[in-house]
Amino acid sequence: MGKGGGGHGHSSNDDRSNSMNPNNDAHDAAMDNHADQLNPNNDKYEGDDED
């Protein structure tokens, strides 16, 4: 019987490898998304500021 992978296939590992590779477009997209989320002037990722 083989090792249990917990339902994780190769695609999730490949996606992570691609997003961590600075020579891959997925890396650029991940970095852009991260910067957008941290940007307080970005309305797309606006948090709840109701005090």
Describe the protein's architecture and organization:
This protein has 51 residues and is mostly helical. Helix content is 49%, strand content 0%. Helix 1 crosses helix 2 (25-38). The model has no long low-confidence stretch (mean pLDDT 76).
Biggest sheet layout? none
Task: Give the helix/strand class.
Answer: mainly alpha
What value does the average pLDDT take?
76
Rg calc: 17 Å
What's the order of the H and E elements? HH
Helix content: 40-55%
Straight-line N-to-C gap: 55 Å
What is the strand and helix layout of this fold?
Blueprint: H1 10-20, H2 25-38
List the defining traits of the structure above:
single chain, 51 residues, mainly alpha, 2 helices
Short characterization:
The protein is mainly alpha-helical and 51 residues long. The chain has helices spanning 10-20, 25-38.
